[in-house]
Write a structure and sequence with these properties.
There is one protein chain. This protein is mostly beta strands. It has a domain at 80-107. Helix content is 9%, strand content 31%. It is built from 5 helices and 19 strands. It has helices at 35-59, 80-83, 86-102, 242-246, 345-348, and strands at 248-250, 253-255, 291-299, 306-311, 320-325, 334-342, 351-358, 361-368, 398-405, 411-427, 435-490, 498-505, 508-512, 519-524, 532-534, 541-547, 550-555, 563-570, 574-578. The longest helix is centred in the N-terminal third of the chain and has 25 residues, at 35-59. The protein is extended.
């Protein structure tokens, strides 16, 4: 075969895919910047934020209040062992109500309480016209506000008119010294008397003589010594230096057994030695030096089984409230003796004593109405203010209340006390022979001390003071102090008893019999020393929950119906002693 001289034709094959041009409707153009669209987006975001805020305010409960960190009333979060304890919540509510009723700072946390109806209306002073709890305030009475000043039609006064000056011009400050007499004051008046002349020579007594050793004359170029400086080397130590002779050196040990004390500068002014220590605080008003006046009420136990005492007002310290049995065997009624102590009739008249019946309860009320005297006249121009009056026995007003039950009384249903201030609320003769149904006492300032008080339920609280003593509850014992201490001894009369001893600022201690109690216990403190629980047999103490500030468990055996809770939040240690 013959070979062909023709070459094969080269055909190019594309290696990349051919891209067709897009259609016109598929082309997207970059939108131009528009202030209108930006404003629309901002309006939508603002509307969303406002809607979220409105929903949050609508569905948020009124109790959720954010308290200030530096609020005066410290309220740290409490553990569950206290939050779910109904008796503890009952005691806490009682203390808060006591603070509000006696004016010891209840408004500090009234808005955070659950029973307060929260509102958004601000509080206004009276007659301000603003909304408050009960709507609009009434208009102020005539003359409540001072009338405005009359209009001024004359010319305007200059801003700071210079004072009239009739004498020669003052020289520039400081004035040059001159040897002539002093210039008289330009504006003599009673308010600006002239300065007194200097005292004549010999007006002041000479300084006391110097009893110590004389200093040697100073050398050339040496400053003269002053009183109190150490003598120089040239001073003769053998004369007058008694301290050197009193030093006894024995084997390198120096003693001052024979040294004479320096009587010229005693360490305690008015006393040769340390002043005597006071045994205790004594009230300023001495009851023995005041005149007593009594008001007696007779209460029939058959008619009234509940008695309440409301003792309010700022009385002086020194009084008491005492419960006891009468010494009179023939007495059949409860005798309430309210005694006031004063030396002036007008001071005694400030005490208002009354008694009445309220819903089956016998009420004894004591108030103090201070007599507002007119203010003293203002002092003369630029005269010193008179010193404040010193307290004396003539302005003292003290009260005491004695509650005496008949000798045959074996039981009584209820006694309640609301006392603003007293020295002691205590038990007297044979108080342990009466079985009370309930005892409830709230004290603003003072001490609650009973020995052998027996009741079915006992509830005690002191805002500023202590709760101490021995108690025999049958079902429940609740005691608390805000500023003070709670130290009680419990002798339960039943196998199941609930005991709570609490203190906000101070220690809290509960003592129970080791053989007469078995059940749960709980100890809590927020800031302070660690909690303590002691028993004769430590193996009977079972701690089931232990963390910072919380120690809980049971003693001998678990029993939810019988428990002891001790809480000391600040500056104190909670403790349980089983003896």
């Amino acid at each position: 075969m013959e070979k062909s001289d023709k070459k094969a034709e080269y055909i190019s094959i594309p290696t990349e895919e051919h891209q067709e041009e897009p259609f016109a409707y598929e082309v997207r153009q970059k939108p131009a910047f528009s202030y209108r669209s930006l404003a629309a987006k901002g309006a939508l975001i603002a509307a969303a934020i406002l809607a979220i805020g409105a929903l949050h305010k609508t569905f948020t409960p009124g109790k959720s209040v954010v308290q200030k960190y530096d609020e005066a009333f410290y309220n740290p979060p409490e553990p569950c062992i206290l939050k779910h304890n109904e008796d503890y919540k009952e005691l806490k509510t009682f203390v808060e109500e006591l603070e509000e009723s006696m004016g010891f700072g209840g408004d500090r946390h009234s808005h955070s309480r659950g029973d307060h109806k929260f509102h958004d209306k601000p509080h206004h002073p009276p007659f301000s016209g603003g909304p408050n709890h009960f709507g609009e305030h009434p208009p102020p009475p005539p003359g409540y506000y001072p009338p405005p000043p009359p209009p001024h039609d004359g010319p305007e006064h200059p801003p700071f008119p210079p004072p009239p000056h009739d004498g020669p011009e003052h020289p520039p400050f400081p004035p040059p010294p001159h040897g002539g007499p002093e210039h008289p004051p330009h504006h003599p008046s009673d308010c600006h008397p002239p300065s007194p002349p200097p005292p004549p020579p010999g007006c002041y007594p000479p300084p006391p003589p110097h009893d110590g050793p004389e200093h040697p004359p100073p050398k050339d170029g040496e400053k003269p010594p002053k009183d109190g400086d150490e003598p120089s080397e040239d001073y003769d130590k053998s004369e007058g230096d008694e301290l050197q002779d009193n030093k006894q050196i024995d084997d390198g040990n120096m003693t001052l057994d024979n040294a004479k004390p320096d009587d010229s500068h005693p360490p305690y002014p008015g006393f040769e030695h340390h002043p005597p220590h006071k045994e205790g605080h004594e009230p300023f008003c001495k009851v023995s030096e005041l005149e007593a006046q009594s008001t007696v009420f007779a209460i029939s136990p058959e008619t009234f089984q509940k008695t309440k005492f409301f003792l309010n007002g700022h009385f002086n310290r020194g009084g008491y409230v005492r419960i006891s049995k009468s010494n009179d065997a023939s007495a059949k009624d409860i005798k309430v003796n309210v005694t006031t102590y004063a030396n002036q009739t007008d001071v005694r008249s400030e005490a208002i004593i009354s008694a009445f019946e309220n819903e089956g309860n016998y009420i004894v009320q004591l108030e103090r109405d201070h007599k507002h005297l007119p203010p003293p006249p203002p002092p003369a121009c630029h005269s010193p203010l008179p010193p404040p009056p010193k307290p004396d026995q003539q302005h003292c007003l003290v009260y005491s209340v004695d509650i005496e039950f008949p000798q045959g009384t074996e039981s009584y249903e209820a006694l309640e006390f609301f006392v603003q201030q007293t020295q002691r609320l205590e038990g007297g003769k044979d108080i342990e022979d009466i079985n009370f149904g309930s005892i409830k006492a709230g004290l603003g300032r003072g001490a609650i001390v009973f020995d052998g008080l027996k009741a079915k339920t006992i509830k005690l609280a002191a805002l500023h003071g202590v709760v101490m003593g021995t108690y025999q509850p049958k079902e429940k014992f609740l005691a608390a102090t805000v500023h003070g201490a709670t130290k009680v001894k419990i002798e339960p009369t039943d196998e199941q008893v609930n005991v709570i001893a609490a203190s906000t600022f101070g220690p809290a201690t509960a003592e129970l019999p080791a053989d007469g109690f078995s059940g749960n216990f709980a100890l809590y403190n927020a800031f302070g020393p660690a909690s303590t629980i002691k028993a004769p047999r430590p193996e009977d103490i079972h701690v089931t929950k232990l963390k910072h500030g919380v120690k809980a468990g049971y003693y001998k055996e678990k029993n939810k119906e019988s428990k002891v809770t001790v809480s000391a939040k600040f500056h104190g240690s909670p403790a349980i002693y089983l003896n």
